[in-house]
Design a protein that fits this description.
This protein is of the alpha+beta class. The protein is built from 6 helices and 8 strands; from the N terminus they run βαβαβαβββαββαα. The strands form 2 sheets. Strands 7-6-1-3-2-8 form a 6-stranded mixed sheet, covered by helices on one side. Strands 4-5 form a two-stranded antiparallel ribbon. The longest helix has 17 residues. The chain is globular.
Length: 193
């Protein structure tokens, strides 16, 4: 008797992703660092934490909107956790300086975590507390931890800025040293598309 052996049905694989919104100075720096971390699927520069709808870069730079430069990070929590992202976040900027990162000054450069769930809020608060304990000689972190109301993507020319402009002086002098110190070699960078 002939019978057909059941074939293996193609298995649907679903990837669960999560999102983190972090700001710590210029979004070009954070984007370049986070997009190189294993488990990060996308890092997108933008604006959040303000009151003006649909802000422009010029408005944010003037301080007219209350927004911070941030990066929206889409990640695979099976590869990197939200807490793991926060550990890199604390190393990527100085959370003790109010409205300033290096020569970048103004409220748009403030240290800010915009949570998307109560679980993220609790993890962010615990992470800041651990950072403060481990770095007590530096002074307390002034990082804001607030609920995300809305994220506005930055203009196209800001996306992948470091990759597109590696010879620009800001990239060589500010971004490159941070990337080399914090991100693994570019073995499998995410591709922002």
């Amino acid at each position: 008797m002939d019978y057909e052996t059941p074939r293996d049905e193609p298995r649907e694989t679903t990837r669960t992703t999560d999102t983190a919104i972090l700001g710590g100075g210029c979004f070009w720096c954070l984007e370049a660092i986070f997009q190189r971390l294993p488990g990060v699927l996308r890092a997108e520069p933008g604006y959040a934490g303000g009151t003006h709808p649909d802000p422009t870069y010029q408005e944010v730079c003037r301080g007219d909107t209350g927004h911070a430069e941030v990066v929206r990070i889409t990640f695979d929590p099976q590869v990197i956790s939200y807490t793991g992202l926060l550990e890199t976040f604390w190393k990527a900027h100085d959370p003790t300086t109010l409205n300033r990162q290096g020569e970048d000054r103004g409220p748009q450069y403030r240290s800010i975590i915009l949570y998307t769930s109560q679980d993220q809020r609790h993890q962010a608060e615990a992470s800041l507390k651990r950072w403060n304990t481990a770095n007590s000689s530096r002074g307390p972190g002034v990082t804001q931890i607030v609920a995300l109301e809305q994220f506005f993507p930055a203009e196209d020319y800001h996306h992948d800025y470091y990759r597109k402009n590696p010879r620009a002086s800001y990239c060589r002098l500010v971004i490159q040293p941070k990337v080399e110190a914090l991100a693994p070699r570019d073995t499998r960078p995410c591709r922002n598309q």
